Amino acid sequence: MEAAEAATLTRLRSLMREVIEPVTADHRGRIFKTTGDGALVDFASAIDAVESAIVVQTRLPAREPSLAEQCSEPA
Q: Which residues constitute the domain of residue 51?
């Protein structure tokens, strides 16, 4: 359990640094709090927020194939 937790945290940090943070910045967003596997982000507009979410949901499955099914399922 501990090894899987450490590996998951490492992958999450990598995804935040390499995907989520740059996409957020590209869409005039600011991450001001992270909690576990979540983040609280402020955007200049609702359109920027939605566009950012779409880009993140498109890029994550390419980086993490195990997320492909989760990102394609309707909420």
A: 2-72
